[in-house]
């Protein structure tokens, strides 16, 4: 190889090396300059959990996070298979097994398993009726009763029987009706053991044993549909 050819080969190798060094220097340069700063920053899309407000970069991460919350409730009942999100809900549920009713009405002594039910009951004594019908202005102590009343105006019957085509304005009437199909009789006489599908039939039956209405006032003989109203009435005789 001639001296000139060797010189050209060496120069070519040096140029390649210099080009590689320049390229590496460019790679190491920080992101700066007006051109870079002018680039719009796109907000990163996040997927938020509706239960605890944590957010995740992908939908699959969110679904993995939610799986244990949907499947496992941390407070199981030791008596039955029910489970609950909070200890408070579990404690309220356990009272359905034990029959415990720690909340008492100061007026008539009626007891309740849930404090909110006791507060709702107090409207019987105060005669408070905060729920009014916008159509006829009739007032009610409970929103449930207002909703039931409104259906007398609208004709709505959202509770349907699974055994026939009848429908009802409230679920209590549906439950009573379903018993005509199932034969269920949940109201039992404590004297003779006979059972009945409706409470008022049991009340009427009890007269055969006692000779009087079980929910009647011993002082004035006035009768009532249930023990709660009888207890309220008895206060008038004090």
Topology:
Blueprint: H1 3-28, H2 34-37, E1 47-48, E2 55-56, H3 59-71, E3 75-76, E4 83-84, H4 87-98, E5 103-104, E6 111-112, H5 115-121, H6 123-126, E7 131-132, E8 139-140, H7 143-154, E9 159-160, E10 167-168, H8 171-182, E11 187-188, E12 195-196, H9 199-210, H10 227-234
Antiparallel strand pairs: 1-2, 3-4, 5-6, 7-8, 9-10, 11-12
Extended strand count: 12
The strands making up the biggest β-sheet line up spatially as: 1-2
Main beta sheet strand tally, sense and closure:
2 strands, antiparallel
Tell me the name of the CATH class of the largest domain: Alpha Beta
What would you call the shape?
A: extended
Give the terminus-to-terminus CA distance.
132 Å
Binned strand content: 5-15%
- Element-level helix/strand string: HHEEHEEHEEHHEEHEEHEEHH
Instruction: Output the CATH topology of the largest domain.
Output: Double Stranded RNA Binding Domain
Mean pLDDT: 75
* Radius of gyration, in angstroms, nearest whole number: 38 Å
Q: Number of folding domains?
A: 3
Quaternary status of these chains? Answer: single chain
Structural class: mainly alpha
Low-confidence stretches: 23-29
Which CATH architecture of the largest domain would you pick? 2-Layer Sandwich
CATH H-tier superfamily of the largest domain: Classic Zinc Finger
Q: What's the tally of helices? A: 10
Helix content: 40-55%
Description:
- The protein has helices spanning 3-28, 34-37, 59-71, 87-98, 115-121, 123-126, 143-154, 171-182, 199-210, 227-234, and strands at 47-48, 55-56, 75-76, 83-84, 103-104, 111-112, 131-132, 139-140, 159-160, 167-168, 187-188, 195-196.
- It has 238 residues and is mainly α.
- It folds into 3 domains: 65-100, Classic Zinc Finger (Double Stranded RNA Binding Domain, 2-Layer Sandwich), CATH 3.30.160; 103-182, Double Stranded RNA Binding Domain (2-Layer Sandwich); 187-237, Double Stranded RNA Binding Domain.
- The longest helix is centred in the N-terminal third of the chain and has 26 residues, at 3-28.
- The chain is extended, with a radius of gyration of 38 Å.
- The N and C termini lie far apart (132 Å).
């Amino acid at each position: 190889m001639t001296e000139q050819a060797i010189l050209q080969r060496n120069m070519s190798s040096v140029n390649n090396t210099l080009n590689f060094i320049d390229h590496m220097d460019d790679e190491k340069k920080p992101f700066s300059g007006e051109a870079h700063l002018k680039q719009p920053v796109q907000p990163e899309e996040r997927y938020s959990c509706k239960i605890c407000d944590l957010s995740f970069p992908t939908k699959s991460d969110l679904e993995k996070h939610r799986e244990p919350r949907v499947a496992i409730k941390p407070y199981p009942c030791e008596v039955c298979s029910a489970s609950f999100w909070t200890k408070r809900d579990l404690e309220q549920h356990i009272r359905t097994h034990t029959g415990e009713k720690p909340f008492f009405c100061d007026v008539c002594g009626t007891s309740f398993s849930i404090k909110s039910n006791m507060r709702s009951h107090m409207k019987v004594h105060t005669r408070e009726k905060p729920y009014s019908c916008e159509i006829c202005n009739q007032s009610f102590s409970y929103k449930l009763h207002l909703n039931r009343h409104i259906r007398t105006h609208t004709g709505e019957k959202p509770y349907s029987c699974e055994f026939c085509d009848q429908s009802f304005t409230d679920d209590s009437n549906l439950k009573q009706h379903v018993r005509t199909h199932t034969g269920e009789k949940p109201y039992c006489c404590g004297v003779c053991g006979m059972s009945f599908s409706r409470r008022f039939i049991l009340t009427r039956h009890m007269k055969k044993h006692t000779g009087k209405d079980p929910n009647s006032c011993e002082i004035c003989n006035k009768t009532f549909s249930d023990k709660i109203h009888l207890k309220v009435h008895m206060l008038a005789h004090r």
